[in-house]
Amino acid sequence: MCMVCGNFLDSLFTKGLLIDMGVEGLYGRSGIFEDVVERLTALITRIGKDGDAEVIRFPPGMNRKDFERSGYLKGFPQLAGTIHSFEGGDKEHATLLEKLHANVDWTDSQEITDVALMPAACYPLYPVVARRGALPKTGGLYDIYSYCFRHEPSRDPGRMQMFRQREYVRIGTPEQVVAFRELWLQRAQEMIALLEMPFALEVANDPFFGRAGRMMAASQRDQELKFELLIRIDSPENKPTACISFNYHQDHFGANWGIKNEEGATAHTACVGFGMERCTLALFKTHGLDVDLWPHGVRDALWG
Ligand code: ZN
């Protein structure tokens, strides 16, 4: 009886909000879906405006050397994506076409390039900030937005392989960084309340890989370094989905990249990350697939 019940992903396809591309987690977006994404980013910009953040937009690929040094492959090898490309001559090209024609694996003709897919929107920021030299006394505040890639094919529309993260990133003293995270923990809850969505706020951990990863995850939880704001979308276990995350990295990135505060101490970092597709899907799940029928308060907050 209701479009939202049953298989949410199929409802999104039927309604044309998402467009099936034949790979789980890789979808086209309709104009209406994109309009909601843009209104949400505008709302986030309004909420964060007083911070006067430096706006930086990176492409969805990052320097592979920076990616390697970031430690991402230590924590999340299962999610990483790297770009490969053909670098052969005529002979190798002929071989490639023969294999393609015979419908056998042709990918050994490809070599890894200097580009890795963006694992999280803030990853390329830290080496950029480090190369600028010591931070000013006030530290740094950055507004970041990029498509990201994570290799985790799924029928859960809230778990896409390519999706956007809007982030604010704070770099500075531990006090500056902790205050930033507290501020955004409050602001994000107010924002989701304004959008009239039920949510929960929980201590969380990143999906670290393997046995060593389980220890890293436990330590992250014990120290309450990561919080997630969860909203119900359509995960297989019917658990709410993390739509916004609040991450205190302590001096992890500062030490890795050599980011220094004004007085020479290693900088601390934190970020608040909005999963733009997840927040958008949560709106469609909560308020229905027809944006014209969303509650007045929600429409005012987004289009008002
Ligand atoms: Zn981040």
- Low-pLDDT sequence parts: 1-5
Give the biggest sheet. 7 strands, mixed
Element-level helix/strand string: HEEHEEHHEHEHEEHEHEEHEHH
Q: Percent of residues in beta strands?
A: 25-35%
What is the helix content?
25-40%
Q: What is the name of the CATH class of the largest domain?
A: Alpha Beta
> Number of DSSP strands?
12
**Overall CATH architecture of the largest domain:** 2-Layer Sandwich
Strand order of the largest sheet: 3-7-8-12-11-10-9
Q: What is the name of the CATH topology of the largest domain? A: BirA Bifunctional Protein, domain 2
Structural class: alpha+beta
CATH level-four homologous superfamily name of the largest domain:
Bira Bifunctional Protein, Domain 2
Our measurement of the CA-to-CA distance between the termini, rounded to an integer number of angstroms, reads 31 Å
Q: Assign an overall shape.
A: globular
Count of discrete domains: 2
Bound molecules: zinc ion
What's the average pLDDT? 95
Question: In words, what does this structure look like?
Answer:
- A seven-stranded mixed sheet has the order 3-7-8-12-11-10-9.
- The chain is 38% helix and 26% strand.
- The chain has eleven helices and twelve strands.
- The longest helix has 21 residues, at 174-194.
- β1 and β2 form a beta hairpin.
- α2 packs across α10.
- Mean pLDDT is 95; it is low at 1-5.
- The protein has 304 residues and is of the alpha+beta class.
- It folds into two domains: 8-81 and 119-303, BirA Bifunctional Protein, domain 2 (2-Layer Sandwich), CATH 3.30.930.10; 84-116, no CATH class.
- Bound molecules: zinc ion (ZN).
- Residues 120, 122, 167, 247, 271, 273 line the site of zinc ion.
- Zinc ion (ZN) is lined by residues 120, 122, 167, 247, 271, 273.
